[in-house]
Amino acid sequence: MASLQDIGVSAGINSLTAFIFLMVFAVLRLQPVNDRIYFPKWYLKGIRASPVSSGSLKKIVNLDPKMYLRFWNWMPAALRMPEPELIDHAGLDSAVYIRIYLLGLKIFVPITALAFVVLVPVNWTNNTLEELKDVTFSDLDKLSISNIPDGSSRFWVHIGMIYIFSFWTMYKLYQEYKIIATMRLHFLASESRRPDQYTVLVKNVPADPDESVSAHVDHFFVVNHPDHYLTHQVVYNANRLATLVENKKSLHNWLTYYQNRYERNPLEKPTIKTGFWGLWGQRVDAISYYATEISKLSEEEDAEREKVMSDPKAIVPAAFVSFKSRWGAAVCAQTQQTSNPTVWLTEWAPEPRDVYWRNLAIPYVELNVRRLLMAVALFFLVFFFMIPITIVQSIANLEGIEKVLPFLKPVIEAKIIKSFIQGFLPGIALKIFLILLPTLLMIMSKIEGFASLSSLERRSASKYHKFILVNVFLGSIVAGTALQQIHEFLNQSATEIPKIVGVSIPMKATFFISYIMVDGWAGIAGEILRLVPFVMFHIKNTFLVKTEKDREEAMDPGSLTFAISEPRIQLYFLLGLVYAPVSPILLPFIVVFFAFAYLVFRHQVINVYDQKYESGASFWPDVHSRIMIGLVISQLLLLGLLSTKEAGKTTPFLIVLPLLTIWFHLFCKGRFESAFVKFPLQDAMIKDTLEKAREPDLNLKAFLEDAYIHPIFKGGVYEKPIMDEESYPIIVATKRNSRVGSKVGSSEDSPQAFLG
Question: Which Gene Ontology cellular component terms are annotated (predicted)?
């Protein structure tokens, strides 16, 4: 059980680590040689150029002493940019993401102040824990609800506080939801013209024996959307071709590396073994080998490209359909096309850079099977992963280490070692254990078949949130507490076990304090240092870069990894809401996290990250829902705790609170969520009218014709299967061998006036 000294040691270690990271960053960012690492966004925008100075040393090291005296200037600079300018600079997704940290401060700063003024004195002025002989505790636990005797009237204070905390949280959430919904609608209304505003993704196009997919799509929309349909682009299954292109790019990098190496040392020709990873096989000339492999791959690529373009089977039953107006696209995207709800499925098209092309080729039936299998896999992953997490946490304490490695007992009983293990090791052990999890969850989301990067990230974030909720939070409390109090569990009667659990749950706050400092202090400071991109850039710059274009490609600006970072933020919301009425000592650590993360990520968004897509903050309803889940959990947990503290007279007053919270969530969902999933027809008509007035001669077809071509085909010779609406007669000709009145698509579609 971590003591105040243990927490102090952990705080010192993590604070020192964060300070060192910040100092190293402050110095490295001033060096010209690192300029593309710490300011890549400005290079991508074309605003910043490589530092030019006389002398080779000045190109590498900043020799101006005045700059080092102002190395902390990045902090006020990160806060200086106004939010409207930030939206123009980085997009609405980035601006709203940063507001999540700001929301955490708005919620928890007042809660922390109130909890320390009211709850801490109420909890501290008791001696209940000292009277319990069979429970291990520390001085920090005296600040928690565990230190209040059973049946005490002081529990009314905690009930009053949970009502205040809940209403304050709901009030700030309502305000934030309203602000962000307004920001989104304003962003969509003021945004410059984009292809996705006019385009709908159509999936599960039914097969037709008489027509190709392209002709079938064209006829369907000419008939059913005659006044608004403009053009379409069928989707090719170019997954294998994309793989070949990626492999060829990798081989080019190796060829460049060995050519540069040979140019630096012409006396020694580089060689390579042809076996797996170069570990065995015949040793050959590296430059010739990679040149030959690239030539072979180029031939294979050309053959595959020709196959994709000429094989009708390479066209999948999906298409990007564009309309003459935003209004026409909105009507199509938000309505059912036929009486059969399983065909001609329409949804708003992702913006071109947001499309995840590999998943567009997955058939509709296969999609449902994949998602079912991944749901089952997630269930087993979430619940069976609790076993290794429990083992790690049980070992990452003094008792666990002494049992596994008894010969280390004299060493770990030393005062400073003991404080390090109790205060620091559990948090870092859990952090390391979770490193590979987000990658696994993203792979599962890709298998599920979502068609955009934004939906993949939101889906992965949902999985990660479930995992954190069950394993990191509930698993740490239930399994960790049971293991720490195992002796009491075995020797007490069954009627006493709930009481021991009720007393012990608040004691787990010390573990979460340790985790917050590791992940939320040192971890966030490590984010701004960008150690991995730093190393990778200099390796590429040394071995692969020949031109300025190569140097730009060597940059790795990264992006806001929503699938990883948003569920992590939700853990802090959950911990803050749960422990505010139970053990307020945890709250200051959470406030420090939100303040520090807000500063760091604002800097990163302004100077570093280059977002892969722009979804117009479509993720916000998920953020709101998860905070509401944390709020309900906090209320139910306090209700359960009070039920073990013989406070039966007070618990009925808590039952209504979760019901009020759920009602509030449904109210917000009905009031605001439609702004995040639909585009108002009124707004679409306004934008279309203004556009026609300002640009009466706009050639929308030319603007849209290349937007949704697979990136593999761009830059090459590509015959786009798009149609000009002006070439169609009023009665559409078709090659079908069907009679007048035949049905479009399938036997379940409504009759259309087609002439055979």
Answer: plasma membrane
